[in-house]
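Field log, afternoon session.

UNIT: design team B
ACTIVITY: writing a sequence onto a fixed backbone
BACKBONE:
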């Protein structure tokens, strides 16, 4: 998948996996690459920090790994309906911790 941080790609994924943003989880989807770049810039991620991403998709974690492929990246997802989608986007061997 080329650029996931777009409205059209996000809509495609939501439709394909029959998903909706759930208010109880405060879910939002990053669809503006400029916002992603600003988040990455402001966090000042380097090799000496671990990153915790709550509600992982593929956008932020993908950019974090581009900065440093060896960085410790922990992802937490509480929405069980997203498990199938996350595994499809990240690979079947991806471990989801609850």
């Amino acid at each position: 998948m080329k650029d996931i941080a777009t409205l059209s790609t996000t809509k495609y994924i939501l439709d394909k996996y029959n998903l909706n943003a759930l208010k109880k989880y405060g879910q939002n989807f990053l669809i503006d690459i400029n916002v992603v770049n600003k988040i990455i810039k402001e966090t000042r991620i380097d090799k000496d920090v671990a990153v915790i991403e709550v509600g992982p998709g593929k956008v932020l974690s993908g950019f974090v790994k581009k900065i440093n492929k060896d960085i410790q990246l922990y992802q937490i997802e509480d929405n069980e309906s997203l498990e199938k989608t996350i595994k499809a986007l990240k690979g079947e061997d991806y471990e989801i911790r609850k």
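LOG NOTE: The chain is about 40% helix and 10% strand.
NEXT ACTIVITY: expression trials, pending approval
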